[in-house]
């Protein structure tokens, strides 16, 4: 039999405070490669450029490189981004390639970024995959992702992106055993289209394929609060 609730009531009385603390810890462990919130740009037709001076709290390395390879009629493919996102890639029937680049693929140089652990929780793995999130897809294309660690550059297997396949695409670290994900120096993302397609890219982040420990703790806290309330 459980004793009277004198010791449990303080927990039940302050669940929101505990959740707030957990939320603050989660926010401190920013999982961005690029949150795609700042740094507008526009490229019509074949060409490339960089957006520099971006907040490193939103873009790893503070530099975002971009490139359009227009395979169809001149200036028929474009990529643009307004503050708040998303990045809009528009193809027009040629073999068009849209690219976003980070770290060693840009003037930012090697990132040395940890894609496994955050500094505040160096013992517990935080991430085991890279997640590409779209807000809208019309038509279909091929999504490619290449990472660099030291002298090693390796591509993940490409994925077909389409509305039917969903808006979220994950690249598991385990697919590239030859890469040290504790120190990633560069990342190159491509979307290739051969039709009249459009892709709205919302974010590139480091994520975990199973719930993070903090998520499990929140779920456990809710369960405890529910148990206490039922016994009151």
What are the key terms here?
alpha+beta; 232 residues; 3 helices; disordered N terminus; seven-stranded antiparallel sheet; globular; 16% helix
Would you kindly provide a written description of the structure presented here, covering whatever features stand out?
Residues 1-28 and 215-222 have low confidence and may be disordered. The longest helix is centred in the last third of the chain and has 19 residues, at 213-231. The protein has helices at residues 9-13, 15-28, 213-231; strands at residues 32-34, 41-44, 47-51, 64-69, 78-81, 87-90, 96-103, 129-138, 140-149, 152-155, 159-162, 168-172, 186-193, 198-207. It is globular, with a radius of gyration of 21 Å. With 232 residues, the chain is an alpha+beta fold. The strands form two sheets. Strands 1, 2, 5, 6, 8, 12 and 14 form a seven-stranded antiparallel beta sheet that branches. Strands 3, 4, 7, 9, 10, 11 and 13 form a seven-stranded antiparallel beta sheet that branches. Helix 2 (15-28) runs antiparallel to helix 3 (213-231). Strand 5 and strand 6 (87-90) form a beta hairpin. It has three helices and 14 strands.
